[in-house]
């Protein structure tokens, strides 16, 4: 996300009197963002004025010299969640297994979402707001382009997004303890990645709804 998008997010939060309990900065690998320190400062300033109790977290894999150099510059009041990646074993479950590819989920109500939407809350990406961060990642591959361009209001349950994204999301199965040791993917994802490799979807960027970019 750009600095301008973060500014817009904070302005929207102020205008909507939203006092976030926790803001988590995720990637990719956020320490590789060229403006990370500036962004952190902006969020800290917002916290100082509007939500002194808010937690600010930075998720990193801690991998590599450059990442470790940036981590040394992060202020002490930022909580660093470091997965300390040091091997090929994956800690996450099989995100790329679409429940809609399984008979067992034929009649599932995908608007229910999963524990992640409750635990981690709403996700903001360069392409708008989603019910969770994974939904934003799914949209980048499938190209539905349904990110909200403005902070969702209290009466917006995001059901349309949950219905669209959870049917594709492996987290929906809630398999907490199944480690994944190799790439695993269902048919819908195989097809989606194939199309993605040929032509990436075009999404509207957050705050720039009238401008279409890659
Ligand atoms: S199943 Fe996936 S898309 Fe749906 S709420 Fe959970 S993490 Fe988000």
Distance between the termini: 13 Å
H/E element order: HEHEHEHEEHHHEE
Task: Please report the number of helical segments.
Answer: 7
Structural class: alpha/beta
E-strand count: 7
Cα-based radius of gyration, to the nearest Å? 18 Å
Q: Per the principal axes of the C-alpha atoms, what is the gross shape?
A: globular
Q: Reading side by side through the largest sheet, how are the strands ordered?
A: 1-2-3
Helical amount: 25-40%
What's the overall average pLDDT, rounded? 91
Estimated share of beta-strand residues = 5-15%
Low-confidence stretches: none
Count of the domains: 2
Largest sheet, strands/sense/barrel = 3 strands, parallel
Task: List each distinct ligand once.
Answer: iron/sulfur cluster
């Amino acid at each position: 996300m750009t600095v301008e998008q973060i500014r817009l997010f904070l302005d929207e939060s102020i205008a909507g009197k939203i006092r976030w309990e926790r803001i988590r900065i995720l990637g990719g690998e956020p320490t590789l963002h060229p403006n990370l320190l500036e962004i952190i400062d902006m969020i800290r300033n917002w916290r100082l004025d509007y939500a002194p109790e808010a937690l600010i977290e930075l998720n990193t894999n801690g991998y590599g010299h450059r990442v470790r150099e940036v981590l040394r510059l992060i202020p002490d009041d930022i909580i660093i969640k470091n997965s300390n990646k040091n091997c090929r074993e994956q800690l996450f479950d099989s995100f790329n297994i679409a429940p809609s590819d399984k008979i067992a989920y034929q009649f599932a109500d995908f608007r229910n979402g999963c524990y992640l939407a409750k635990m981690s809350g709403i996700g903001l990406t360069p392409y708008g707001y989603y019910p969770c961060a994974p939904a934003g990642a799914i949209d980048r591959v499938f190209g539905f382009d349904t990110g909200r361009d403005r902070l969702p209001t209290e009466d917006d349950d995001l059901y349309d997004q949950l219905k669209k994204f959870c049917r594709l999301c492996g987290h929906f199965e809630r398999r907490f303890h199944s480690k994944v040791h190799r790439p695993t993917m269902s048919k819908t994802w195989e097809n989606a990645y194939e199309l993605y490799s040929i032509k990436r979807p075009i999404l509207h960027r957050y705050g720039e709804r009238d401008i279409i970019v890659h």
